[in-house]
Amino acid sequence: MNKIEHIGIAVKNLTSSIDIYQRLLNTDCYKTELVASEYVNTAFLKPGENKVELLEATSPDSPIAKFLEKKGEGIHHIAFLVDDILEEMERLRNEGFTLLNDAPKKGADNKMVCFVHPKDANGVLIELCQEIKWV
């Protein structure tokens, strides 16, 4: 794993949360994106080298809606940038970690993603992400 790529924060209202975090971090939201497959609207801010991803549920059945219902607003996951997501997934499986995905899937911000079960990381949901390279 190369570095923390972003911290994901679950929010109830994306619009008001964008305003809060723009003022808090003194930077503009540079991108919003719907990830229909995950039933989530996202917004990205970049204060320095790392990013903050705000996550708003678009369906009551989405993982973010369930998280908000159970835990309320707050840190949802920490994402780490990797060079080769397939290789890193295999390494983690060999180390005994449970992955929530059998294969990487398309996530927000031009990334392929996979998640490590929080029960294997002291309650923290870990996301692996690799930039999608266009040929």
From TrEMBL:
The keyword Heme appears for this protein: no
SUPFAM superfamilies the UniProt entry points to: Glyoxalase/Bleomycin resistance protein/Dihydroxybiphenyl dioxygenase
Enzyme Commission code(s) on record: 5.1.99.1
Transmembrane segments: none
Pfam families: Glyoxalase_4 (PF13669)
Gene Ontology biological process terms from the UniProt entry: L-methylmalonyl-CoA metabolic process
Domain of life, per lineage: Bacteria
Keywords of the record: Isomerase, Metal-binding
Domain (VOC): residue spans on this chain: 3-131
A GO MF label: methylmalonyl-CoA epimerase activity
Protein family membership: Belongs to the methylmalonyl-CoA epimerase family.
Name under which the protein is recorded: Methylmalonyl-CoA epimerase
Gene that produces this protein: mce
